[in-house]
Amino acid sequence: MNSNSNRTKGSRAEQEAVAFLISKGYSIVKKNFTFGKNGEIDIIAKDSDTLVFVEVKARTSDEYGTPEDAITPRKRQQIRKVAQGYLYVNNIEDVQCRFDVIAIQYENGQSIIRHWENAFW
Q1: Across residues 49-53, what is the average pLDDT?
Q2: To the nearest 10°, the Cα dihedral for 9, 13, 15, 17?
Q3: Residue 5's pLDDT band (cuts 50, 70, 90)
Q4: Residue 41 in contact with residue 79, Cβ under 8 Å?
Q5: HSE-up of 102 (CA within 13 Å, CB side)?
Q6: Which stretch of DSSP H or E encloses residue 103?
Q7: How many angstroms from the chain centroid is the CA of residue 42?
Q8: CATH number at residue 116
Q9: Which domain holds residue 114?
Q10: Contact between residue 99 and residue 120 where contact means Cβ atoms under 8 Å apart
Q11: Is the separation of the CB atoms in 96 and 51 below 8 Å?
Q12: Per the structure, how many domains does the chain have?
């Protein structure tokens, strides 16, 4: 599988995640925020007064585990670092933050979405 195809799938998953979050009343602040070479956060949203950093993972099969399995300790550390970068760059202080994961499983042409609020800290 080439990276272009993976990028297209990732984009589709992120679009579905954005629509899902909006349907739950979240507002989208930023998509695909990168901080230097530290990595990227897929979606930054607001849930009331809480700033939410959202990682989106999607799978078409369980061959390599569930989407949630891809959120390794190293990946969590990377997301935390990029989130700190976002707060620093935007001069944001004293705001409640949390990390959510949206896992999307594609089965028989259907998207099964699982939203893990406060998935890690």
Answers
A1: 97
A2: -170
A3: low
A4: yes
A5: 26
A6: strand 97-107
A7: 4
A8: 3.40.1350.10
A9: 3-120
A10: yes
A11: yes
A12: 1
